[in-house]
Amino acid sequence: ASRLGLEPDTLLAAAQHGRKQINEATATVAAKPKDPLQELREVAKKEGRMRSLQVALEVLFTELEAERGFTFVLLLSQQAYKAQQAIGKGATAQAAYLQFDSRFEPNIVHLAMSKDKAVHLENTASESVYPRMPQWWQQRLGASAKACTLVPVRVHAHTIALLYLQWAQEKKLTEQQQHLLGQVKEILQSG
Q1: Which three-class secondary structure state does DSSP give residue 110?
Q2: Which of 27, 102, 135, 165 has its C-alpha lying 20 to 30 A from 8's C-alpha?
Q3: Are 82 and 99 in contact (CB under 8 A)?
Q4: Tens-place pLDDT, residues 129-169
C-alpha cells in the first residue's frame, strides 16, 4: 500500500468494494436462467441445420428429462434415416446400429413422420403400441424403451430428420412439455 501511495485502510476498502461488485455481478448472471429456446433460435439463424438439430436434441433431452436421445437424418444416397447424433447413457455406441428405410412402412414411426406434429407414446410396451413399432425399433430399442417421443422435422412437406427420445419407464408429458415439443419443432422447420 505504501509503494502505491495509499493508506492501507483505503486499499483494503477498495479491494472489498471490488470483491462485492464482482460477487453481485456473478450472482446476477447466475440468477438469470438461460432460455434454451432462445439459444436454439440463435443457432437456427446463425448455424447450419445439423447444429440446430443437435441443440434441439440437447434441449429436449434436458427439458423432458429423457434417458436417451437420437437424431435420425435422411441420407438420400442410402434412402434411409440414420442416427447421426446421440445423447444419454450408451446412446453413442448404439447409434451406429440405428437406421431405417425411408420408404413408407405401416408402423408408428413412419406414421409419426408423415404428420406435422410430435408424437409421444406413454407406454410402448402396451399391446396396442408394441406390435405397431417397426422391427428395427423392437430389436434395438424396444427392450430399453418403455416410453418415447418422436419429433419429425419437415421441410417442404418432406421429413428430413426425426428427433427421438426415450425413457425406461412409462412417461406422461405435461402440457408445458408438449408445448415445448411444438416450439422446438417450429424453430427447426423455420430455420
Answers
A1: helix
A2: 27
A3: yes
A4: 999 999 999 999 988 999 999 999 998 889 999 999 999 99
Closest CA to 146 of 162, 123, 128, 129: 123
- DSSP per-residue string spanning 123-184: -TTSTTTGGGS-HHHHHHTTTT-SEEEEEEEEETTEEEEEEEEEESS-----HHHHHHHHHH
Q: What is the pLDDT of residue 27?
A: 56
Cα dihedral sign for 147, 144, 129, 133?
A: positive
* pLDDT of the residue at 29: 47
- Is the pLDDT assigned to residue 61 strictly greater than 60? yes
pTM above 0.70, yes or no: yes
> For the chain, give me the number of helices (H) and strands (E)?
7, 6
